[in-house]
Write a sequence for this structure.
């Protein structure tokens, strides 16, 4: 009789005997590893393997099992399925102790990448994950909450982030704060988009977000709610979700890490959804952030099971097919494999200049903030400077905040409002307008001091 580690196996007499023998050996090996077998009973098999046309039935001797419930548990069935390359396991103990194991693992059709189609976006806050065995997968950023994305270089991680950004811009209901750790090489191309800030300095953006979370906490206390959906359900003036996207966590300055960890840990209730990406999951910054409740994990192919463990909380990403865009997602306590969509990225902003979207008077307000107010928008000051009522200035500030030209109201340590701050988008508008204005003034001065003859030559 054939044995494995001195545990006898029943003989196989069947055309399927080879498959049954292999399954039986691996099953017995797992039982021994988990210390579920009673040893030292000579010539008594732990189980008999009964080959059937599509499966093998393992018929156990209950006296050889230390813990029958453990052998029949879902946990053991999952472990055995993993050891047998995903074969289906069925357990029963109605007339004895049985495990039924399929000969062949389930066939999964090859996942193919398909172009990103925004017409499939279920809601303005859904983002594209990719194609799964069940079809296209989109998830709401509200449900994903806080996200960690990791993967090796050139495996599709950054292109995947572009898809998330484009979907949220298309939806138009979230405010995006983007930092790529590469001087805006990646995310700077979205700076002119509505509701987007591509920040060159992470520290400034984090401090503004801390102030905004503090402001929202005060508003929630006034209304008596504890979450953004509750607040928006009761208030006419809605608060938008905030999405902070960081492309390379390993580049986060050490001085910025405490503020970021604080935001990740407490920002969810106030509508802040961080998306942190990295190709170096072993960095201290990433491991600290993981402990701060990045609840949704997405892993592209990685070199080691340790990298997968950091990103997903379990191995698996090291075994992914090394195809760009292939990923694993932990979602609803399940591991989902997907192929990310084909995503086109826009050209860098430096290629084409965008015309100003501001009126002449609004450009004057922007220059006033830049040159005389150190970037601060205070409604009373702006109203007095331009001869309008305070209501006009407040309406302008709210419109500019929604357009991504101004931050939310900033507050000091005591919670007193200090006004809104210009964003980089409005600063660029003001600076470009100022340069054009100075050029026009120079031309007028040249014309005023030159004789008529030279004036005619310049025309």
């Amino acid at each position: 009789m054939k044995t494995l580690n001195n545990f006898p196996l029943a003989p196989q007499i069947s055309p399927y005997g080879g498959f049954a023998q292999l399954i039986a050996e691996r099953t017995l090996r797992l039982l021994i590893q988990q210390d579920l077998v009673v040893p030292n009973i000579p010539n008594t098999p732990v189980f008999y393997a009964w080959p059937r046309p599509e499966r093998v039935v393992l018929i156990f001797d209950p006296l050889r099992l230390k813990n029958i419930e453990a052998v029949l548990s879902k946990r053991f069935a999952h472990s055995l399925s993993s050891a047998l390359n995903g074969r289906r396991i069925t357990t029963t103990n109605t007339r004895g102790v049985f495990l039924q194991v399929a000969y062949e693992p389930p066939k999964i059709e090859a996942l193919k990448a398909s172009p990103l189609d925004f017409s499939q976006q279920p809601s303005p806050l859904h983002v594209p994950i990719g194609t799964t065995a069940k079809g296209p997968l989109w998830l709401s950023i509200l449900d994903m909450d806080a996200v960690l994305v990791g993967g090796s270089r050139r495996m599709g991680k950054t292109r995947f982030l572009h898809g998330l950004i484009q979907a949220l811009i298309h939806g138009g209901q979230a405010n995006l704060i983007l930092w790529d750790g590469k001087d805006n090489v990646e995310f700077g191309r979205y700076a002119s988009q509505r509701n987007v800030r591509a920040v060159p300095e992470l520290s400034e953006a984090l401090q503004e977000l801390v102030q905004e979370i503090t402001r929202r906490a005060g508003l929630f206390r006034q209304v008596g709610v504890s979450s953004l959906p509750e607040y928006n359900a009761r208030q006419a003036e809605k608060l938008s979700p905030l999405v902070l996207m960081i492309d390379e966590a390993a580049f986060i300055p050490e001085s910025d890490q405490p503020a970021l960890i604080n935001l990740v840990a407490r920002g969810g209730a106030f509508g802040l959804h961080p998306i942190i990406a990295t190709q170096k999951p072993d960095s201290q910054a990433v491991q600290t952030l993981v402990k701060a409740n990045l609840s949704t994990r997405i892993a592209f192919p990685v070199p080691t099971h340790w990298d997968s463990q950091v990103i997903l909380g379990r191995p698996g990403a090291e075994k992914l097919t090394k195809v760009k865009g292939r990923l694993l997602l932990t979602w609803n306590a399940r591991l989902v494999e997907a192929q990310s969509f084909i995503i086109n990225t826009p050209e860098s902003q430096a290629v084409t200049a965008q015309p100003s979207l501001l009126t002449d008077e609004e450009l004057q307000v922007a220059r006033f903030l830049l040159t005389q107010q150190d970037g601060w928008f205070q409604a009373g000051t702006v109203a007095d400077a331009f001869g309008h009522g305070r209501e006009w200035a407040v309406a302008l500030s709210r419109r500019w905040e929604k357009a991504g030209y101004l931050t939310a109201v900033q507050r000091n340590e005591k919670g007193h409002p200090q006004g809104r701050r210009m964003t980089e988008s409005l600063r660029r508008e003001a600076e470009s307008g100022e340069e054009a204005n100075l050029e026009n003034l120079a031309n007028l001065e040249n014309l005023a001091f030159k004789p008529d003859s030279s004036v005619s030559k310049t025309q």
